[in-house]
Amino acid sequence: MLENGIHRIVTNYCPLSPESLADFRQYVEVLNCQKGEQLVKEGQHSDKLLFIVKGCVKAYYVKDGKTITDWFAFENDFICAITSFFLFVPSPHYIELIEDSTLLVITRDDMMTLCNKHHDFERLGRISTTKTMLQLQQRVVSLQFESAQQRYLNLIAVHPSIELRVPLGDIASFLGITQETLSRIRAAKVRI
Amino acid sequence: MLENGIHRIVTNYCPLSPESLADFRQYVEVLNCQKGEQLVKEGQHSDKLLFIVKGCVKAYYVKDGKTITDWFAFENDFICAITSFFLFVPSPHYIELIEDSTLLVITRDDMMTLCNKHHDFERLGRISTTKTMLQLQQRVVSLQFESAQQRYLNLIAVHPSIELRVPLGDIASFLGITQETLSRIRAAKVRI
DNA sequence: CGCCGAGTTGAACTGAATCAAGAAACGTGG
DNA sequence: CCACGTTTCTTGATTCAGTTCAACTCGGCG
């Protein structure tokens, strides 16, 4: 699974030299976890970067007693407790498994070591960050002035399988709407 | 102004070796423009990355005949037509000067040349992208489940001077609300 | 069988949009 | 320096998309 995961990173993001790859293997670990497990809890410092080999994961936070889903990660995605990982603060986010999953894990310190040592690893960092930045940009456009229905249609256009894998309530809060509204949108009882 | 700008990049983002700096100077240009000028128009391919030495700039797009402000950049910020620059497609965005400004300009190709040649320049790319990613992440949280009033208060907490520099309508659409609503919020005629 | 979480439906409510006037501020030329 | 048009901002009345709260359905599963 380690080699499988590393191969997917290299093909999906950016090639690495044999030396970088050898070094990478030293630092990365494989983690198998079950649906429902919480890898990060609110208030914890988290310095782990995860890569999803198989399965799916959500990041969410709690506001006024309500659970708000902030991000989903599926196969070949990276995910981390973004504020804690990059800003060294306690995480507002939980990270929780939506399915039984196989993950690769690397710590921030080890990432930094690899980034300092290998130019191509630094590039991998730049490219994966750029990809996330572009996804966030799309999400802002979607939240800023699109209707709930349009946001939903956008989401299933990008992730057609999401409804089969993720509970409705999580999708709703990711879209910035309530579960009831999403249910009505799916039943097409909301005016287009 | 060139040295001033480069110095600010190095201090605000990431140090560069003397060799990288020397190379950087070869590729970067200083641009002085006036309020109202459009550096990028909808439909154009844009391969320019801008750094604001002095002044401010907005990126906006037009949807259903309405102007929607997507991003502001002030002193020491980078800005580009994000989709066009990174995905090589025609830009949905306009980029327009809000004040008379001094900018540094570098093309995507020259950026890539510098990234390939210098490890520390690649790091500069990673770090500036990470910074933008974190700002977008905050913006998503803000748009997802905060009230119009709360979003406004967040914004002026981060950019206290924005109201003095940017027209109300631009701020409103950046927040995902109408100008009328923002005007009422400022007059505190909306319930807290 | 009865419980339990996930999803649906209904009715009333509300935050913000829309539409429509005005009032202020701004700049440009006489 | 003032008159003029233009852009920027405010205010009011009405409408509507989406929330809230509450009840209900459905499919598992001990």
- Low-pLDDT stretches of chain A: none
How many helices of chain A? 9
> Would you tell me the overall average pLDDT of chain A?
94
How are strands sequenced across the largest beta sheet of chain A? 1-8-3-6
Assembly state: homodimer
CATH class of the largest domain in chain A equals: Mainly Beta
CATH architecture of the largest domain in chain A: Sandwich
Helix proportion range of chain A: 40-55%
Biggest sheet layout of chain A: 4 strands, antiparallel
CATH superfamily of the largest domain in chain A: Jelly Rolls
Instruction: Measure the end-to-end span of chain A.
Output: 46 Å
CA radius of gyration of chain A is: 18 Å
The CATH topology of the largest domain in chain A comes to Jelly Rolls
Q: Structural class, judged by helices and strands of chain A?
A: alpha+beta
Number of strands of chain A: 8
Could you tell me which chain pair has the largest interface and how many residues each side has? A-B, 30 and 29 residues
- The ordered string of helix (H) and strand (E) elements of chain A is HHEEEEEEHEEHHHHHH
Count of individual domains of chain A: 2
Query: What share of residues are in beta strands of chain A?
Result: 15-25%
Shape, per Cα inertia axes of chain A: globular
Write the layout of secondary structure elements.
The structure is a homodimer of 192-residue chains.
Chain A: H1 2-12, H2 18-27, E1 29-33, E2 38-40, E3 48-54, E4 57-63, E5 66-73, E6 78-79, H3 82-87, E7 94-97, E8 101-107, H4 108-117, H5 119-145, H6 148-158, H7 162-165, H8 168-175, H9 179-186
Antiparallel strand pairs in A: 1-8, 2-7, 3-6, 3-8, 4-5, 4-7
Helix pairs in contact in A: 4-5, 8-9
Chain B binds a DNA duplex (30 and 30 nucleotides) through helix 9.
